[in-house]
Amino acid sequence: MKFPKGSEEWTMFMDFWGLCQKYWQPEESDEWWDEALGACNDFARKYGNDGFPRGLAMALVRKLEEDWRRK
Fold it and tell me: pLDDT, tens digit, for every residue of 6-53?
């Protein structure tokens, strides 16, 4: 399936892509973590705050935490 450009699904995935691009490499500052977690929460709230969008946001947060712990 291909999501039509401009559809809610297309926009959601583009926004998620932007989150990944901006926060893919965790940093060690509290400010960075506050910003990253806030952006993930904002993303989930924007798209319903439950189900699939929340799962995407939480998957990114888990990835960041795992990467940070490995450092």
Answer: 999 999 999 999 999 999 999 999 999 999 999 999 999 999 988 999
Classify burial at 6, counting beta carbons within 10 Å of its beta carbon; exposed 0-12, middle 13-18, buried 19 or more: exposed
pTM equals 0.91
11-43 burial string, b = 16+ CB within 10 Å, else e? ebeebbeebeeebeebeeeeeebeebeebbeeb
CB 64 within 8 A of CB 22: no
Q: What share of the chain is helix, strand, coil (3-state, %, to 5)?
A: 75, 0, 25
